[in-house]
Automatic annotation (TrEMBL):
<dbReference type="InterPro" id="IPR002933">
    <property type="entry name" value="Peptidase_M20"/>
</dbReference>
<dbReference type="InterPro" id="IPR036778">
    <property type="entry name" value="OHCU_decarboxylase_sf"/>
</dbReference>
<keyword id="KW-0464">Manganese</keyword>
<protein>
    <submittedName>
        <fullName>2-oxo-4-hydroxy-4-carboxy-5-ureidoimidazoline decarboxylase</fullName>
        <ecNumber>4.1.1.97</ecNumber>
    </submittedName>
</protein>
<keyword id="KW-0456">Lyase</keyword>
<dbReference type="Pfam" id="PF09349">
    <property type="entry name" value="OHCU_decarbox"/>
</dbReference>
<dbReference type="InterPro" id="IPR018020">
    <property type="entry name" value="OHCU_decarboxylase"/>
</dbReference>
<keyword id="KW-0479">Metal-binding</keyword>
<dbReference type="InterPro" id="IPR036264">
    <property type="entry name" value="Bact_exopeptidase_dim_dom"/>
</dbReference>
<dbReference type="InterPro" id="IPR010158">
    <property type="entry name" value="Amidase_Cbmase"/>
</dbReference>
<dbReference type="InterPro" id="IPR017580">
    <property type="entry name" value="OHCU_decarboxylase-1"/>
</dbReference>
<keyword id="KW-0378">Hydrolase</keyword>
<dbReference type="GO" id="GO:0051997">
    <property type="term" value="F:2-oxo-4-hydroxy-4-carboxy-5-ureidoimidazoline decarboxylase activity"/>
</dbReference>
<feature type="domain" description="Oxo-4-hydroxy-4-carboxy-5-ureidoimidazoline decarboxylase">
    <location>
        <begin position="9"/>
        <end position="170"/>
    </location>
</feature>
<dbReference type="Pfam" id="PF01546">
    <property type="entry name" value="Peptidase_M20"/>
</dbReference>
<comment type="subunit">
    <text>Homodimer.</text>
</comment>
<comment type="similarity">
    <text>Belongs to the peptidase M20 family.</text>
</comment>
Length: 583
């Protein structure tokens, strides 16, 4: 018989610990400390509380928890003395059916890992879907994490332990995140359509891009949307009619970067799609319509016209974009027409939305960062999307012989840029947590090991939660570059490539996200978005607010390691359903 929250909340402290036995391997102290925080409104609240106990424990206690876990396919598994929970997990991942070569590899990795870190490698082998990682996925993860810093790896082990506990709790409570599983499976299905045979890549206007659009339209129709279409820039638009004429706009993008993950953008399309499916299944209509848009382009990977899809809705599509060329010399207009789109400015201009018809725009998005992951929180409230300025720059000095030019007589362009990089890091850090600065590209043209760099090209990316903070950082960095070059006898050029204003969340819509997260029994955590999103374009026309969803593997995004668990996806869909019915 499945455990219930009512039974857990009503149990004595001793029974509470007994009921949660096996959730954390040989570590009853976690449940003992969490008992005092009852009652728990939801299973999600219980999981957050258990994780908080571990996060607030001493390092020695955390290490003892890690060391309480067995090695994967290790001596305990061979001897048959694993706990029932560990035996089940290793069996589901196929670790009891290793080939001799796989078993030997795992034994070597276990030994190398223990030698480096002093504790066993921990991995939730049932994975983010809950059905089990493959042995190759386990071995690849093992090899990757062997390269980590000890402090980072200890933190990752604890996160993996929380994931193991989450799966065990789901088994105890008989909780199956069916909506989260559907989202995860749909994301996997979309990832089959790729421009690259090995890695997920879905660029604007390609056959893979069109195939994703067609699949999304099919799912929208099957889910009960009243009207479904692909518009003049390739956006997939689904309308679920309401009792009134006004609509709430929501969605995200379905294009990807090269070598992408499955959830950036697409999570924010599939979550409201499934929310509408649930409303349709129960026959519920809201006072307003729900317009879900899968934006055709946000990443700027094939053409430099970043946000071209949401710009069309905001009425800020630049006509000059139609003549932009991709790397193969194809214009954006031609790419549109090849994908079955009209490619005309009149058709694109007709997509501009009338703000009077809309209540606002809300977006769900994977965090693309480590904050929620480090706090063991599944959801976060976005306060603002950072404003940004980007430049390409070049410093020019004098290329001369590395052996014969005295240090005091050099005009080293790369050294000047290195000095600028350190200043950007220090200046942005001094204004933390709301300001960031990055030099992501460096190039010494025709560089040689024995030649002092005479030229150095670089990029500059400056971001902040407010335009004032962004502009102050921008002014200080440009002044420092001027000072460095004056002092070193160098010249420089700095070319602006992008400027985007900050997009603070609308207070009323942010409050609705807060109410939705609170209804799930979760604590509220507010954070800015350092990445750009379609919401920042819609912000030009409509009130907007965003919800972040925790990403796995340290919060990495724009990477094949990008991950979301089915439980976190379920919470995001539940939050969306609550927000819709609060509004």
């Amino acid at each position: 018989m499945a455990l219930t929250l009512d039974a857990l909340n009503a149990a004595s402290s001793g029974d509470f610990v007994e009921l949660l036995d096996g959730t954390y391997e040989h570590s009853p102290w976690i449940a003992e400390r969490a008992a005092a925080a009852r009652p728990y409104l939801t299973l999600a609240a219980l999981k957050v509380a258990l994780a908080r106990v571990v996060r607030e424990a001493s390092i020695d206690e955390q290490l003892a928890l890690i060391r309480a876990h067995p090695e994967l396919a290790g001596k305990a598994a061979v001897a048959g003395v694993l706990t029932a929970e560990s035996t089940n997990e290793q069996h589901k991942a196929g670790l009891t059916a290793c080939t001799p070569e796989e078993f030997a590899t795992l034994q070597r990795l276990n030994a190398d890992y223990n030698a480096k870190f002093g504790f066993p490698f921990i991995l939730a082998v049932r994975g983010p879907r809950g059905t089990g990682l493959t042995r190759q996925e386990i071995i690849s993860t093992f090899e990757r994490r062997l390269r980590a810093h000890p402090d980072l790896e200890r933190a990752e082990c604890l996160r993996q332990i929380h994931r193991i506990a989450e799966i065990r709790l789901a088994d105890k409570f008989g909780a199956e995140p069916k909506l989260g599983q559907q989202l995860w499976d749909w994301a996997a299905e979309l990832a089959r359509h790729s421009d690259d045979a090995e890695w997920l890549t879905c660029l604007y206007g390609t056959p893979a891009h069109t195939a994703v659009a067609e699949q999304l339209m099919a799912w929208m129709r099957d889910s009960g949307f009243d009207d479904v279409c692909r518009d003049a820039v390739g956006n997939v638009v689904g309308l679920y009619r309401g009792q009134g004429e006004q609509r709430l706009l929501t969605g995200s993008h379905y294009d990807t970067v090269r070598r992408a993950g499955r959830f950036d953008g697409r999570l924010g399309v599939l979550a409201p799609l499934l929310a509408v499916r649930e409303l349709h299944r129960t026959g519920k209509r809201l006072p307003f319509g729900i317009e879900v848009i899968a934006f055709a382009e946000e990443e700027g990977q094939r053409f430099a016209a970043t946000f071209l899809a949401s710009s069309a809705l905001a009425g800020s599509f630049d006509p000059a974009w139609l003549d932009q060329l991709d790397a193969d010399g194809t214009t954006l207009r031609a790419a549109m027409q090849a994908a079955g789109l009209p490619g005309t400015l009149d058709a694109i201009a007709a997509l501009k939305r009338d703000p009077a018809r809309y209540l606002g725009f809300v977006e769900v998005h994977i965090e693309q960062g480590p904050v929620l992951n480090s706090l063991d929180l599944p959801l976060g409230i976005v306060t603002s999307i950072n404003g940004s300025r980007r430049y390409t720059g070049e410093v020019v000095g004098l290329a001369s012989h590395a052996g014969t030019t005295p240090m005091g007589q050099r005009r080293d362009a790369a050294a000047a840029v290195a000095e600028l990089i350190l200043f950007v890091e220090q200046r942005a850090a001094a204004a933390a947590p709301d300001v960031v600065g990055t030099v992501g590209m460096l190039d010494v043209p025709s560089g040689s090991i024995n030649v002092i760099p005479g030229r150095c090209r670089f990029s500059l990316d400056l971001r902040a939660t407010t335009d004032a903070a962004r502009d102050a950082l921008d002014a200080d960095v440009r002044a420092k570059l001027h000072e460095i070059c004056e002092r070193r006898g160098l010249s420089f050029s700095l070319t602006p490539t992008m400027a985007a204003s900050a997009a603070p969340s609308h207070p009323a819509w942010q409050a609705r996200w807060e109410a939705a997260v609170t209804a799930l029994g979760l604590p509220l955590h507010h954070l800015p978005s350092g990445a750009g999103h379609d919401a920042m374009k819609l912000h030009e026309r409509l009130p907007q607010a965003m919800l972040f969803v925790r990403g796995g593997n340290g919060g990495i995004s724009h990477n094949p390691l990008e991950s979301v668990t089915v439980e976190d996806a379920e919470l995001a869909i539940s939050a969306m359903l609550t927000l819709l019915q609060l509004s």
